[in-house]
Amino acid sequence: MKIRASLLTIVLFSFIFSGCATTSTSQNNLSTPDNKYSYDGKLSQEQKHLKNHNFDVIAIGKINDIFDGEGITKAIKTKNNHQGMEETIAIAETHDFHGLCFVNLVDFDALYGHRRDAVGYATCLEEFDQQLDTLIHFINEDDLLIICADHGNDPLHTGTDHTREYVLLLAYSLNLKAQNLGIRETFSDIGATILDNFNLPPMKNGTSFLKKITKGEIK
How far apart are CA 159 and CA 144, in angstroms? Predict the structure, then answer.
């Protein structure tokens, strides 16, 4: 099986969806407390690579701002996580694209993580979980959903800064069975997996885990 149609990546949050697809990149140098952005063109290489090969690259949430529009074919602004998931579900339902859908759900970080609001964080996570259940119903055999986070932000930790725990990485497709992807060396592994998914040559960094997850498929 080759998961070619779409890749959806959700970053928690951000996420990636193939059918809708998304790349995940560390944003440690991108976001500052006053919400200003600094942009390094090297960070959007995978998106530009996809766009240059005529794949769709859909940015939902602040993704377009983070990458200054580089490598993006369509940008959808959102006001909150709920709207971000609604837009993502709509795209997954119609499957009116071929490439990557890159989604950023910023409320976990901006509204609850930095403010150390554990109750608000939990409520927000429950809402995401409910919408994720809806989204999964529209994930087809040739779609790949990747859910990840770009950094930690423990709502129970002291202070207001990002925290340094390991972050999650979940990959889902209709016929894949559960397995352990291990501790990855770099966020670039996600970008490498996305390029591999669309039969594009790899960039300098990252190791694709596409073969690992497809070898464990049910069919």
Answer: 36
Torsion of CA 169, 59, 88, 186, to 10 degrees: 0
- Shortest CA distance to 25 belongs to which of 6, 50, 43? 43
| CA neighbor of 146 nearest in space, from 204, 199, 192, 110 | 192
Domains of the chain: 6-10+45-208 (3.40.720.10)
DSSP SS3 for 31: strand
What is the DSSP code string of 56-106?
A: EEEEESTHHHHTTTTT-SEEE--SSHHHHHHHHHHHHHHT--SEEEEEEE-
Percent of the chain with pLDDT over 70: 76
Distance, CA of 14 to CA of 36 (rounded, Å): 19
Tokens of 120: 């608000």
Cα(37)–Cα(43) distance, rounded to whole angstroms? 13
Q: Is 67 exposed, middle or buried (0-12, 13-18, 19+ CB in 10 A)?
A: buried
Model confidence pLDDT, tens digit, residues 74-118: 999 999 999 999 999 999 998 888 999 999 888 877 677 666 888
Distance CA 45, CA 187 (A): 13
Query: What are the C-alpha distances in Å from 31 to residues 37, 43, 64, 67?
Result: 5, 13, 13, 11
Q: Which of 191, 173, 21, 23 is nearest to 97 (CA)?
A: 21
The burial class, CB within 10 Å (0-12 / 13-18 / 19+), for 142 is middle
